[in-house]
Every structure is written in C-alpha cells, then in structure tokens.
Amino acid sequence: MIMDIGGQALIEGVLVKTRDKIAISIRKKQRIQTKTEKTSNISKKLSKIPFLRGIVILIDTLILGTKALIYSAKEQEEDSKEKITNTSLTITIAISFLIGIGLFIALPLFISKLLTQNRILFNLIDGLLRVAIFLAYLIIISTNSEIRRLFQYHGAEHMAIHCFESNQSLTIKNCKGFSTIHPRCGTSFIFLVLIISIILFSLVWAESFFIKLAQRILLIPVIASISYEILKFSAKRQQNPIVKVISLPGLLIQKTTTKQPDHQQLEVAIAAVKEATSP
Fold first, then answer.
1. How many domains does the chain divide into?
2. How many other C-beta atoms lie within 10 A of the C-beta of residue 279?
3. Per mean pLDDT, which of 8-17, 56-65, 113-122, 190-199 is the most reliable?
4. Could you give phi then psi for residue 34, rounded to 5 degrees?
5. pLDDT for the residue 2
6. Is residue 205 part of a domain?
7. In the chain, which end has fewer C-beta atoms inside a 10 angstrom radius, N or C?
8. Which of 57, 145, 137 shows the shortest CA–CA distance to 96?
9. Is residue 119 one of the residues assigned to a domain?
C-alpha cells in the first residue's frame, strides 16, 4: 500500500501524486486522457526531512499544480472556441498571485493598523481578518458554476483516494460510499497556515507597515513547514480527541471546497488514482 498519496482538482480533471509517480487524468468529451511522469528524486529525498519537507512540498505543489492547471486548461481548447495562450495564462497566474498577496496579507494588515497599535490586539485582528476574508472568498467563488465543477472534481479526488486507502476496488460504486472530505486536504492545510500565522506573527513586531508586510511574506515558508507537520501528525491520529478539535475547522471548510461528483467525474479521479498507484 502506498500511503503517501495526494491530489488536486483540475479543469475537467484530477491530478494524483504518490511518492514515485504523478498522474493527470483529463475528461476529453467521451474519453479520459491520462499522462504520467516520475516524481522528482530531489523532492523525494528532501520530503523525508521533518520541517524542511513542508517547504519543499509547498514549492513542489505550487509548481506542479500550476503546470497541471495550465495543461488541463489547454487540453480543453479542443472543446472550446476560445484559445488559451501561454502568455495569457502566465499573466493570469501572476495577477492571481498579486491579488492573493493583497487580499490575504496586505488588506488585513492595513485594516488592523487603522484599528489598533496594541501588539496583541493587532495580531489577533490581523489573523481573524485573514480567516474571515478566506472564508468569504470561498463562499463567493463557490457560487460560480465553473468553480463548482472544480469542487466536484475535488470531491471525486478525495473519494477515490479514500477508496484506495481502504483497500477496496476502485469502482464508482465503492467510491460513492466514501466522503468527499479528507483529513490531508490542502484546504485544511491552508486553514492551519492561517491559524499558525496568528501565533507566529505575534512573536515578531515592527512599526513600519511595509516591514510588517515583508515579514509576513518571508515567513510563509516557516509557517508552511510547521503547518505541514501538524497536518501530517493529525492525519494519522484522527481518533484522538485533541486532534479532532484541531482538525474540525479544516474539515468543516471542506464542505465548501468539495461537492458531490457525478459518475463521469468519479471515473476521471479513479483513472488518475489507478495510474498513479500502478507499479
């Protein structure tokens, strides 16, 4: 059994990654197209080192996830009148990154600075605002029909992985018996990042708005590494009462970021899991 398995929803597709292999399955009209590649040897070696692996996996996931999203978007060109260029995709990703920095880091920081200069209150308000903006963002985008389909593929990915981890045959019937919520999901990871950041940012202080902003950006890898270790620890101890309390907020948020998939979406997820876990 391959225990280290994770995935990501794509545009009409699913990415599944194990320690040795990456599989991307895309729905192409009435067929499923799957491609595979080997996992980077450097990533595999560094992913064994506690705390460092959180940073490595964050960078690796961002790069791999971006490439996979670009691939899935371009693969849908045949079914769409719109043509996607590499330049437009690069610009879109860059703008999305800048908006993310502005929305989830700069905006809460700016509002907090207007409200108080008390160190404890400042970091508490800053952190709570980030959580509130994140939740509001998820709720708003979930109303979009295309995002909803993405969330359905997210649910399909979780159900197929659950099925595999339970040693059951990867069939639509078996997968439908599992939840769309998974304890190792990236949504839970992001929520942990938000909570850990409240604690960590309270330990560093600067009067300047721009220094505060720089600190928050530069400390992202540190926060990611701590959050990853907590997520990995809690995923293996789901029956522990303390772990249940820690995990609950992230699991509840997944009710927004995952939706029940249809049969065709489950077929795509199953194809990706089968290919990623095959010898």
1. 1
2. 4
3. 8-17
4. -125, 135
5. 41
6. yes
7. C
8. 137
9. no
Summarised one tens digit per residue, pLDDT across range 196-206 is 888 888 888 78
The answer to whether residue 191 sits within a structural domain is yes
Which pLDDT score, from 0 to 100, does residue 201 have? 84
The two tokens of residue 277 are: 């876990």
Q: Is residue 94 part of a domain?
A: no
- Domain range for 49 is 6-84+149-277
Q: How far is CA 220 from CA 52, 185, 225, in A?
A: 13, 19, 9
Confidence at residue 188, expressed as pLDDT on a 0 to 100 scale: 80
Which pTM does this prediction carry? 0.86
